[in-house]
Write a structure and sequence with these properties.
There is one protein chain. With 158 residues, the protein is of the alpha+beta class. The protein contains five helices and six strands. It is globular, with a radius of gyration of 17 Å. 28% of the residues are buried.
Length: 158
């Protein structure tokens, strides 16, 4: 997709004759770590700076009547590090902490502002556990390439 929303290429399936279901535009999937951009943007609006030191360490939260202990992919922790490093290394525990700092509602609100609606405001939002379409996710990222301006995907010019 170009920064203005022009779709350059889209592959929604293997054989349109057998199935018209467009997986790129219709299938909902968990975005995982790609969703962390919304967490960091919400945290920046809440006062985080790129130089802010954040803690990468084990974390356990009470969610309803259960405990949740998200960890980093590697199982290792870096301690106190700059936010830029945490973002670059996609550290899960920092993302969870930042979503709590900003407020999970603010993360969901950020996703909606960038075009992804109906994201539940729960702690797992920090790790991309909600469902989105690939097209909506690409369009949301397009805001960055389009200098913060809204991006509406389009494929037919005339």
């Amino acid at each position: 997709m170009q920064p203005d929303g022009a779709i350059k290429a889209m592959i929604g399936g293997v054989n349109y004759g057998k199935s018209q279901y467009n997986r790129a535009a219709q299938a909902k999937r968990q975005p995982g770590s790609v969703f962390k951009m919304f967490v960091y943007l919400a945290a920046l609006e809440a006062g985080l700076t790129p130089e802010t030191e954040v803690e990468d360490a084990p974390i356990t939260m009470q969610v309803g009547n259960k405990t949740w202990t998200p960890g980093n992919y590697t199982g290792q922790y870096k301690g106190i590090i700059p936010a830029t490093q945490a973002f670059r290394e996609s550290l899960n525990t920092v993302s969870v902490r930042l979503s709590q700092f900003a407020g999970v509602w603010r993360v969901a609100q950020m996703a909606e502002r960038l075009g992804i609606a109906n994201i539940p405001a729960n702690p797992s939002i920090a790790l991309g556990a909600s469902e989105v379409t690939l097209l909506d996710l690409v369009a949301a990222y397009g805001h960055l390439a389009n200098e913060g301006n809204s991006v509406k995907p389009y494929g037919i010019m005339r």
